[in-house]
Amino acid sequence: MKILGISAFYHDSAAAIIENGEIIAAAQEERFTRKKHDPAFPTNAVKFCLEYAGLSLSQLDAIVFYDKPLLKMERLLETYYAFSPKGLRSFLTAIPVWLKEKMFLKKMLYTELFEIEKFDKKKVKLLFPEHHLSHAASAFYPSSYDDAAILTLDGVGEWATASIGHGKGNKIEILKELKFPHSLGLLYSAFTYFLGFKVNSGEYKLMGLAPYGRHGSKEVDEYKKIIKEQLIKIYDDGSLWLDQNYFNYATGLRMVYDDKWEKLFGFPRRDAETLLEQHHCDLGLAIQEITEEIVILMAKEAKKITGSENLVMAGGVALNCVANGKLQKANIFKNVYIQPAAGDAGGALGAALAAHFITFDQERTTNSSKLDAMEGSYLGPRFSDLDIELTAKKYKAHYEHFENFESLSSKTAELIADGNVIGWFQGRMEFGPRALGARSILGDPRNPEMQKKLNLKIKYREGFRPFAPSVLAEDVSEYFECETPSPYMLLVHGVQESRRNQTPENYEALPMMEKLYFLRSDLPSITHIDYSARIQTVHEETNPRYYQLISDFKQNTGVGVVVNTSFNVRGEPIVCTPEDAYRCLMRTEMDYLVVGDYLFDKTKQPEWLEKDNWKEEFVLD
């Protein structure tokens, strides 16, 4: 049974292919087109998946799209009717696009697929599972659990904005749904917008900003009170109601009514890239804490109605790793598993899996000895020595080729320990938003200047943004208050008390950036302002080369942790090809690039003559 899954036309388009229930390949379209969150039909991702699986479209049993377009069209029309006459301008602008993309989606899909290859559409089924079923399937079927509660949380699919389901064997039953316009994802996005970040991409910035808020302060408490009394109602089961007098997303072109929010919170909407002030941080903390409260209430409800010991999660809100860490600490479930491509990109994989197990009723077997069936989420393209050498020839690049990886790993570990920033490009590209040691930029977590250097000289992004640690799986509890695997960088836990430095008495009164550069632990570059870290545990069985590198770094320094950030600059998708990687080396202040068994020293490269202006080429995401 060979099935292709597709997500497209909203954001983060992607394709995935499975064969007899095994995940063969998956990738986001943005990595090929170099357009962040590319919503276009994933032509390149489909071609890659087919090529990697050695299949043609005509050999497939089914092609599956990740949601039901007619249900989505129904929601859009009913919403405008319910809110009329508000939103007339938005409606008139959007209706031609909807008619094309929602009413005639099947025709559009066939047109795009035929551009790739002609096939007999009578012999290949075209299927449309519901959006939240695709999310649910993406989390449950790759997990190692035979029985699990399923929690999906995002902005909106067709009508559902959140769902609680129960997975057993090869079946999924959706038990409860929260319906549009009431949505935790859209609530969080509304605050993302109001605090000056970009909706559908800047939510993780809001999560990173929140710890700069003053925990337990009267200001944060007052903001939480305003949110709960004026904007939303939260019920015991985690469902919520949003007062649409304050929100504009249902029928308008913005998330909120700016003037009403300014009156509520006492300051105007922040413009992008303007100075962040303490009240922005405090409001960010308020909505983060409310989000955590709602997620935990929903998880308790999922436990209550399923009785399962296991929880699996997907949907964009499941990428809120701070909430995930709090949920895990709450011990509502014995085990928690989160799909690494939790957003809409993962819907492509979930759609394919839903078709295999539900539509075609195929048998499912689980393997409790493995973390999951995602293969570390290393599901994208890999490149050969020839590909690397052709890139080097194109740019007349200087490189050193290592005959054995052990020597290269040892050399790279030494370079990191000496304070260098390394572009690290190995094996298959990651599927999902996180760089997991295949397309990563690496540094020394002990170096007090590393966070500043990475943010300002490599990534060209806001200085407050934290960096994640990659830690040898068996060493995680030595450095962090975490006892479980976290292979996908989706859990935030505290740095061990023994590694923390005491804050000065006037710490809370310090300006934001002075707080940032206070050395909070003996691993300052990965310790966030609240002594937390977004942890990736590195496992030898899924990424032996990355594991070897960190082991060599530990042998040199006594520390089994490196700084890991995604291999890109602000607003750019993570690099896909050796050429993407080399260009990123030459256009930043990165020191070295390691691609496969090849080492590129920045100081030995020919002069870079291309004109570079990241701010023009890539908008702040």
Question: What does this protein look like?
Answer:
This protein is globular. The protein is of the alpha/beta class and 621 residues long. It folds into three domains: 1-132 and 344-358, ATPase, nucleotide binding domain (Nucleotidyltransferase, domain 5, 2-Layer Sandwich), CATH 3.30.420; 143-338, Nucleotidyltransferase, domain 5 (2-Layer Sandwich); 400-596, Carbamoyltransferase, C-terminal domain (DHBP synthase), CATH 3.90.870.20. The strands form four sheets. Strands 13-21-20-14-15-19-16-18-17 form a nine-stranded mixed sheet, sandwiched between helices. The chain is built from 21 helices and 21 strands. The two termini are 39 Å apart.
Layout: helices, strands, pairs:
Elements: E1 2-7, E2 14-19, E3 22-28, H1 30-33, H2 43-53, E4 62-65, H3 69-83, H4 88-103, H5 105-116, E5 125-127, H6 131-140, E6 147-153, E7 160-168, E8 171-179, H7 184-194, H8 203-209, H9 218-231, E9 232-234, E10 240-242, H10 258-265, H11 278-306, E11 310-314, H12 321-329, E12 335-338, H13 344-359, H14 385-394, E13 400-401, H15 405-417, E14 422-425, E15 439-443, H16 450-458, E16 468-472, H17 476-479, E17 491-494, H18 512-516, E18 532-538, H19 544-557, E19 561-566, H20 578-586, E20 592-595, E21 598-601, H21 614-617
Parallel strand pairs: 1-4, 4-5, 6-11, 11-12, 14-20, 16-18
Antiparallel strand pairs: 1-2, 2-3, 6-7, 7-8, 9-10, 13-21, 14-15, 15-19, 16-19, 17-18, 20-21
